[in-house]
Automatic annotation (TrEMBL):
GO function term, MF aspect, one: ABC-type quaternary ammonium compound transporting activity
InterPro entries from the UniProt entry: AAA+_ATPase, ABC_SmlMolc_Importer, ABC_transporter-like_ATP-bd, ABC_transporter-like_CS, Mo/tungstate-bd_C_term_dom, P-loop_NTPase, Transp-assoc_OB_typ2
Keywords carried by this UniProt record: ATP-binding, Nucleotide-binding, Translocase, Transport
Xref: Gene3D superfamilies: 2.40.50.100, P-loop containing nucleotide triphosphate hydrolases
EC number: 7.6.2.9
Xref: PROSITE patterns: ABC_TRANSPORTER_1 (PS00211), ABC_TRANSPORTER_2 (PS50893)
Domain ABC transporter per the UniProt entry, residue ranges: 6-236
Name of the molecule in the record: ABC-type quaternary amine transporter
Amino acid sequence: MGQPIIELRHVIQRYGDHTILKNINLTLEPGKFYTLLGPSGCGKTTILRTISGFNQVTSGDVLFDGHRINDVPANHRNVNTVFQDYALFPHLTVAENVAFGLTLQKRPKSEITQKVDQTLKLVRLAGYQDRAISALSGGQQQRVAIARAIIMQPRVLLLDEPLSALDAKLRREMQYELRDLQQRLGITFLFVTHDQEEALAMSDEIFVMNNGEVLQSGTPVDIYDEPINHFVADFIGESNILPGKMVADFQVVVNGQQFECSDAGIPTDEPVEVVLRPEDLTLTDLAHAKLTMTIDTQLFRGDYYEIAATDTRGHSWLIHSVNPAEDGETIGISFRPQDLHVMRLHEKEAEFDARLGTYEGTEDADHDQP
């Protein structure tokens, strides 16, 4: 790992009686796409505001290129922000919006014109210089907001749920465009979303947050395949999470039955939770089934059927299958040992907390901002 561009060390942020950020530790490397992922009110936007300089931390340090910037004002930090509502000026043209920062710096008019043209070309809006903001689609307005941010050549671009106002098809298209733009620019993106699919599709690394804490960080594959606790497993994609018990290395009991798994090093007879993703479950005949259950209902999702079922012990299951089933039918399911992911109830979380540092407070984060 090279020199980090941004570091948050033991950052705590309080607003009155509310603790919004609880001992946040995270590191951003140059040229990567990072995502803060979590439910509304978990502290994601507060982290962006802390990095950009709009918030002063209660305690802890914010570092840029290894230098502490707690007291550096927002306009002197080499970061820029794309806001959820874009914050464009409706009375200015596209070119005037994009040029706004350079105009404030009193750059020569010829330089501004040249950079605006180059930047609009970069975001695929060449020829839109004289358009009114009101004449643009939502996706085009978002591109203008991004152009206004990147024309200032920030080292870090902060994006606060910039896709949330777009319809589903355009949102998916913009995911590709943002990822492509980040790779072409080679600057660090820190993206905020509560959309798990969006985070998994776009990110080099994800920070999963809840109640003002970073619960887990890693690549999308790491986060999806190896969730650290119940919240992460449940929040990232669809999951079947069941109580279990380790009986030996690579052997776990679930639903009263012993199965081979890919986990080892957990004490014998330790209670655990076992995760099985819906897409890892295969419908099979009862003679070859590892578990049997009854179909409650199913929904056609286009490329698969989403099947809700109940097993013989009353646990609810979600199954993704390319083949339909009949409501009320008794079916068998099968899975591979590597499809069973075992989560320890306490120790695994404690190990992660030890790496991040432990927060001793008791307050909960109720919202991102006061």
